């Protein structure tokens, strides 16, 4: 089932890139991100309330808060960088280069989460990283 949700996340991310590129055409990229961020907060907390999980907020321990806050700050930085790249470049090239994060995610998971590296993962990460770089540097498509 995680594959279905991962594919839905990927499809949603692709739609976000396209819609964001159109949306920030005539405005500063950070303003566009700020508008989206407000909507993200509203939608995210709506899900928490409608699913009946608001009481779980009280059960979050200090360590989890620290990691969630750090991840939130880094998410904002990542999005601001992505929006700026999107404003400056073509959507197909900037969004593909952004996917080099897969390589970094695997490395961080191996180092910090002690996940195992096998040959399939190594080959897949190499191919995806190489593909993202090839697309990003594919030349002007206009």
TrEMBL record:
Keywords: Membrane, Transmembrane, Transmembrane helix
Record flagged with keyword Transmembrane: yes
Residue stretches spanning the membrane: 30-52, 64-84, 120-139
Domain EamA residue range list: 2-136
Organism domain of life: Bacteria
InterPro entries associated with the record: EamA_dom
Protein name: EamA family transporter
């Amino acid at each position: 089932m995680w594959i279905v949700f991962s594919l839905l996340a990927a499809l949603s991310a692709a739609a976000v890139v396209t819609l964001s590129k159109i949306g920030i055409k005539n405005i500063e990229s950070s303003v566009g991100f700020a508008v989206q961020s407000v909507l993200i907060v509203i939608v995210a907390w709506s899900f928490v309330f409608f699913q009946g999980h608001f009481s779980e907020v009280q059960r979050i321990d200090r360590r989890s808060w620290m990691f969630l806050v750090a991840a939130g700050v880094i998410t904002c930085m990542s999005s601001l960088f992505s929006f700026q790249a999107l404003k400056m470049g073509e959507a197909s090239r900037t969004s593909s280069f952004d996917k080099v994060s897969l390589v970094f995610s695997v490395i961080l998971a191996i180092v910090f989460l002690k996940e195992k590296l096998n040959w399939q993962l190594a080959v897949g990460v190499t191919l995806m990283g190489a593909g993202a770089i090839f697309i990003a540097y594919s030349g002007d498509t206009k």
